[in-house]
Structures are given as C-alpha cells and as structure tokens.
Amino acid sequence: RFCLPLVLASLPMMATGEQIPPALQDSWGDFWLFRFFVNAAGYASIVVPGFLLIQYFKRRNYLETGRGICFPVIKSCVFGSEVKSVHQEDGSLPPRAEPTESSTTRQVFKLLFCAAGLQASYLTWGVLQERVMTRTYGATEKDPGEKFTDSQFLVFMNRILAFTVAGLYCALTKQPRHGAPMYKYSFASLSNILSSWCQYEALKYISFPTQVLAKASKVIPVMMMGKLVSRKSYEYWEYLTAALISVGVSMFLLSSAPNRHASTVTTFSGVVLLGGYIIFDSFTSNWQDALFTYKMSPVQMMFGVNVFSCLFTVGSLLEQGALLESIHFMARHSEFMAHAVLLSVCSACGQLFIFYTINQFGAAVFTIIMTLRQAFAILLSCLIYGHAVTVVGGLGVAVVFVALFLRVYARSRMKKRSKKLPPGETPVQKV
C-alpha cells in the first residue's frame, strides 16, 4: 500500500534530474502521472459500462426486436441510421459556398473579420492559458498565493460552453439529418480530452513558446496516424516539409541561453506531456475525418464530441471530489473565475470562427491565418512573460514557419493540378 505513493513521488526527480517547482512538491498526488491515471480511471468507469451496454444491445439484435419509449434513444446512440454521405473532396468538411456576385470590398471585409476573430480568440486564449497554469492567485506581501493545478476542470469549463454553443447553433439553424451512432463520438471525445489535459499540464514544465512549436510539428504524427488509421498516401513535399519542421523544432529545443528563466527550461515531464498531446490530437483529427463519411456538419461534430467530453470530465471530477474543490478555488479568487470563463468563451468562439473561415475562404487561407497566429503567440508570450529566445532558437522558429508556409503553398498547387486531371484519375489524399 505504501510503495506506490513512494514510487510515484520519486518518479519526477528520477526522470528529470531537476528541481521540481515548489507548487508541484506539495504531495505525490500532484504529480502529473498520478493525476493522469486517476483521470483515466474515472473515464473508464463510464466507458466500460457503456461498452458492455452497447455489446448487449447488439447481441440482442435490439434494432429488430426493441420497443418502448427508450427505443429512439438507444437506436440513435448504438445504431444510428448507418447512412453515409457521398464522397467529398475534403472528407472532413462540407464544400464551401462560393461567393456569388460579391464585391471585392465585401470579401476583403469578410477576410479581415475572420482573421481578426481567429487572432483575437486564440491569442487571448494562449495568454490566459499560460497565466492560469503558471502564475499564482491571491498573492500579497505576506501570502505567496496559490496555484490552480487541476487541468481537467479547465477542460470541463471549455467543453461545457462549447457544448452549449454548438447545441444552440444546431437548434436554431437547419442541419443535415444525423446518421452516425452517437457512441462513435466518444472515441474522438476521449482523445480530445486527454490531448487538452496534456496541453494544460505541460505548461507546468515547459514554456509556452516551446508548446506552440511542438503543436506546429504535429504534422508528423498526423501523417503517421493517417497511414495507420485512414491508410492515406502522401507526396514527397509533405515528407520534406515535415522533416524541415522537425529540424526547426530541434534547433529551438536544443538552443540554450546563459540567463534562461527557470520557466523556460524544457523538462522530461514536459516533453512526455507534449508527446501525449500530439499523439492524442493526431488520433482525434483522423477519427473525426472518418466520422465525416456520415452526412453531418462540423457543428454537429462539435456538439457530439462535446456531449461525451462533458460527461467524461464531470464524471471524473465528481468521483475525485475535484469539482467542488475547483469551485471553491473559484469562489476564493474572482480573478481566476474571470480567466476560466474567458478561456471557455475564447475556445468556443474560436471554433465557430474556424468553421466560418473555412466555409467562406477554404482550408488554405485558414491555415495561413492560424500559422501567423502561432508566430504571434510566441512573440506575445515572450513579451508578456519574459521568455528568452537565443539566435539559434529564433532560426529554428523561422525554419518551422517557412516549412508551414511551403506546405500550404504546395498543397494549393496540388489542388489546382488535381482539378485539371482527367475524369478517371484521382489525386493522392493529403493532410
């Protein structure tokens, strides 16, 4: 009984060989690996009974024999309509509406609106994310204050607002007839929760610029997941740009500054958490891509995933008793409550801006805007929180963003070329 806590308490120092920040030394229960397994156990307490129920209804052939008031709910959750949509060019997004008789000024205004909305939402979200996870609340001259440590509660706050916004949008606008079994959203939901948790938790060990660059390099695992999950093929330029991104990230991570701030030191735990974020996020995008073979809109996808995300996170928080603890932290620190609510608003609004931008201007323009956002996020974080970046590190950042822009350019050229192919030929799938 006593060995497990001792082992878990010693793992951070054995793995990293560095001084653990005081906020992480309060108890072995604050170590990220322990929290990860506790959270996973909470999700399993919901997933396992759900899996057994699904198998039970399928074995009983409930679709043929079921009756009663619960039949529509069980049919939607377990079986769906099983009607898949025709093949789409993107596979993950509905064909965007081409502007008809729209003036250039109107289109420029729309583009500026989309760019400003995306930049404001996600830059604010990034600054707040770093503030919540790395700074204390309630600090005075006599009291050092306290840090908020439960990343899962922040994930829950983000998901509950996204679920509400998507639900209202689906209720107020006309949507395609839903056909996917609801339980299939749970796979993307679990990986999405875990990727978000890793992203928040990693900020306790690494700097925000390092996290942004790591997120930019997720192209590589996305390609690997695409081969494993969707059996996709890729062009030579995709492998080349992926290699350039990995080189740039390596230059940034291996660069060192003599007076580097303690918060910018990349730790072993931070690298592991970033790896977890990239793997889970890569699975999420590929699983959602497979789900889009059913006839659904992006907002329906947002609603379905967030339904399960709210269920998993609130269930796990209640089992741990962490929900009330986080609410009490909110009550003690009104500034934290404002930050948590604003984080959720930025996340939900950002998702709506994503859908609108892609629908109006396509994925290429959206990717360029978001790539610029990542560069601005690094600059903003360095200015506000004083992160030091060396010359080699700066060159690494430049290599990453040059590779990303090359990727966008090459993809747009390939799409133009694929439109000119003879009717019998099909282009290679891309990410």
TrEMBL record:
Cellular component, GO annotation = endoplasmic reticulum membrane; Golgi membrane
Which InterPro entries does this entry report, sorted A to Z? EmrE-like, SCL35B1-4/HUT1
Q: Does the keyword Cell division apply?
A: no
The lineage's top-level taxon is Eukaryota
Q: Name one GO molecular function term.
A: 3'-phosphoadenosine 5'-phosphosulfate transmembrane transporter activity
The protein's UniProt keywords, in alphabetical order, are: Membrane, Signal, Transmembrane, Transmembrane helix, Transport
Q: Name one Pfam family in it.
A: UAA
Signal peptide bounds: 1-17
Q: What is its main location?
A: membrane
- Please state where this protein is localized: Membrane
Q: How does it sit in the membrane?
A: Multi-pass membrane protein
The portions of this protein that span the membrane are: 33-57, 108-128, 153-172, 236-255, 261-280, 301-324, 336-356, 363-386, 392-410
Q: Which PANTHER family match?
A: ADENOSINE 3'-PHOSPHO 5'-PHOSPHOSULFATE TRANSPORTER 1, SOLUTE CARRIER FAMILY 35 MEMBER B
The UniProt entry's sequence similarity note says:
Belongs to the nucleotide-sugar transporter family. SLC35B subfamily.
Q: What is this protein called?
A: Adenosine 3'-phospho 5'-phosphosulfate transporter 1
Q: Top-down, what is the taxonomic lineage of the species of origin?
A: Eukaryota, Metazoa, Chordata, Craniata, Vertebrata
